[in-house]
Amino acid sequence: MDEIQRENMLSELYALIAELNSQEDCRILFEDLCTNKELEQMAQRLKAAKLLKSGLTYAKVIEATEISSATLSRVSRCLQYGKGYKKFLKD
Known about the structure:
Elements: H1 3-18, H2 23-33, H3 36-53, H4 58-65, H5 69-81, H6 84-88
């Protein structure tokens, strides 16, 4: 797949997600799009980001979420340098 095809597909996905109106709509769509494990991992990352933002140490976050240290490191980098967590995780 070339980069243009990839970008078009991602654009369609983001547009569909932006049309969702409720938590129930999100649940229905994401259960079709993702495996249970993928949903669990996304929820785990969100929980880890919230815990890190609240000041918990890596060790405490790993204990609370059972997230891998490599994934937690990525979540931490996204908290520091990314845009999504900063925009959507309110204090």
